């Protein structure tokens, strides 16, 4: 007698789990709906920042590598926001009297971190990891848009479940060679089908079925 539960029990159990997940998620949706002053924008809208840091200027025109400031993006779940002394490697010399940079100098002098308004945020019940994506050929611009053109930083995407799943079901259509991860202008070329097939094998990417499993993002 190995079959203790009748065949329908499995389906009922699944429905119960699904219902419980939806209820939990519903709760967070409600709580998340309360405006958070540190996260207050929609797609395409840049929040005001102090000082008005420009990716267009620093990453675009000056060509500073993303990893110079977002030091953990290839190794950890979070990309990391640069501490003040990173800004001061240049701004103790360049523009070191500019009123616009007073908050940076004050931050260093008072040893109080700069306070940036958060641009992108997932609900707490979703697990995300930068290193996994960046090391497997998914470029920043696939999720953040062409950051090098942004004067102030805005969210390029609504991080809905559908957005994540659209790629997890067909990662081959978005895979890039390792160095193209840093190319903010990247678009899939006419050879993407062949390139994607080759890179799926080279990066050892899991099947679409596994990448769509609920427990990948809801742990
Ligand atoms: C000189 C330092 C510096 C460089 C270089 C830099 N960034 Fe940033 N980045 C920042 C700072 C400071 C912030 C916080 C202020 C803001 O949101 O603009 C930030 C914020 C971001 C955010 C939004 C974070 C959030 O709140 O959700 C993204 C996305 C981002 N950077 C991507 C990039 C990419 C992609 C590159 C390379 C093309 C890059 N950055 C290069 C300093 C830098
Ligand atoms: C590699 C050198 C370098 C680093 C690192 C750097 N900056 Fe700059 N920054 C510059 C230069 C060069 C200018 C432009 C001066 C000019 O316009 O001639 C500038 C200009 C600025 C301006 C004036 C507005 C603008 O974009 O023209 C702000 C604000 C600023 N930086 C903030 C920051 C902050 C905040 C950080 C740290 C997160 C930072 N910078 C890191 C080199 C740097
Ligand atoms: C697959 C989508 C995806 C890719 C690719 C991606 N990001 Fe992100 N990024 C996100 C999401 C989602 C968040 C919000 C995470 C959260 O709230 O937990 C985020 C947040 C950030 C943040 C702010 C919070 C933090 O993690 O410290 C920075 C900075 C950032 N990304 C930079 C980058 C850079 C630089 C690259 C490329 C090297 C990159 N991202 C590639 C989806 C992505
Ligand atoms: C443009 C494509 C793309 C987008 C968009 C994307 N992912 Fe991924 N994701 C991947 C690839 C490729 C992998 C690596 C799969 C592997 O290693 O087998 C991955 C892996 C992951 C993993 C780790 C899976 C594991 O093996 O444990 C998590 C968690 C994850 N993604 C969450 C998210 C979330 C949450 C979002 C939406 C905010 C998202 N992803 C958006 C392509 C994408
Ligand atoms: C690739 C990542 C990923 C996978 C796989 C995934 N989810 Fe999600 N899920 C998300 C993200 C991101 C959100 C947040 C959406 C938002 O804020 O709009 C979310 C939100 C939810 C919510 C909250 C309600 C809603 O739609 O806003 C429920 C319930 C949910 N997921 C259930 C599931 C179930 C069940 C599965 C498996 C069939 C699953 N998820 C697989 C990323 C994922």
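^ Assign residues to that structure.
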């Amino acid at each position: 007698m190995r079959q203790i539960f009748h065949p329908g029990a499995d389906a009922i159990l699944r429905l119960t789990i699904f219902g419980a997940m939806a209820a939990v998620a519903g709760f967070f949706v409600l709580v998340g709906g309360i405006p958070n002053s540190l996260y207050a924008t929609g797609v395409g809208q840049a929040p005001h920042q102090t000082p008005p840091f420009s990716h267009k200027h620093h990453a675009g025109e000056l060509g500073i590598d993303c990893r110079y400031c977002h030091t953990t993006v290839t190794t950890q779940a979070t990309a990391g926001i640069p501490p003040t002394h990173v800004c001061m490697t240049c701004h103790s010399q360049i523009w070191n009297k500019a009123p616009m940079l007073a908050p940076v100098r004050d931050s260093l002098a008072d040893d109080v971190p700069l306070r940036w308004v958060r641009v992108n945020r997932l609900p707490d019940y979703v697990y995300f990891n930068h290193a996994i994506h960046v090391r497997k050929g998914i470029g920043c611009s696939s999720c953040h848009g062409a950051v090098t053109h942004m004067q102030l930083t805005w969210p390029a995407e609504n991080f809905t479940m559908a957005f994540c799943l659209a790629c997890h079901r067909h990662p081959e259509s978005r895979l890039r060679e390792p160095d193209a991860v840093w190319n903010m202008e990247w678009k899939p070329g006419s050879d993407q089908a062949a390139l994607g097939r080759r890179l799926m094998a080279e990066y050892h990417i899991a099947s679409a079925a596994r990448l769509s499993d609920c427990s990948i993002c809801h742990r």
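The radius of gyration is 21 Å.
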